[in-house]
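Thread: imidazole glycerol-phosphate synthase, structure

OP (GT): Posting the sequence first so everyone is looking at the same thing. Length is 254 residues per the record. Can we get the structure tokens written out before standup tomorrow? I want them in the notebook alongside the other entries.
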Amino acid sequence: MLKVRVIPCMLFNGFNLVKTIQFNQLRNLGSPIQMARVYNSRNVDELIFLDLMATVENRPPAFAVIKDIIEECFMPLTVGGGIHSLEDVDQLMKIGADKISINSEALKNPSIIGQIVKKYGSQVLVIAIDAKLIDGQYFVFRDRGRQNTGKKVVDWIKEVETLGAGEIFLNSIDRDGMMSGYDIDLINQAVQVSSIPIIACGGAGKVQDIIDAVIKGQANAVSLASMFHYSGHTANSIKERMAQAGIPVRLIKK
């Protein structure tokens, strides 16, 4: 079994980092540059930076901010938000992004998946999926969780995998910021139809939630934000507990 990754997720509103609850109630968390420095000094496996408002406001990625983060970042960085074209991807790769995450644009224009994969390879492309449970089924939402696409999550996962996506960033709208545990059923359904890695996001409140996402949900990686901001845990303290539970992780020896 490959090592399970623990990945902080930084949410950006165009000015500062924010924290959301069920995709609403933005709370200011300060400078993304400073937070990148903090994560860089700790044992995080990767970092995800998502510009929440770029697509909603129909603006391009915050290239200058992203470039500053990359200069502080010595771990793989995934960048998403406001990516509307292959030219946007070219610019992000040029300034040093390791992976690209697309969400709404892939739903509006699935051909962009093939364009990115053809030029940069599947390993560069992460498809972000915002999922919500409605009447017992999980549906894909776009535009920061504002619009139900009518697509079932499992069907969209199969479609983007066929088109060449390298990973899935699976975010539960219902669990976002609630710190009540990951949606294990959602993760299970995704894993069962996918042969590419599933990054579970939304709901981590304690270490056992992360362990459950991996052991019960079979997630390949976990992404979280609130636990790092509010619980006092570091990536290493989380991974030490994961290792004790028999989960393979990358640890830095003290």
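GT: Both are above now. Quick notes for whoever picks this up: The domain at 5-244 is CATH 3.20.20.70 (TIM Barrel). The mean pLDDT is 93.
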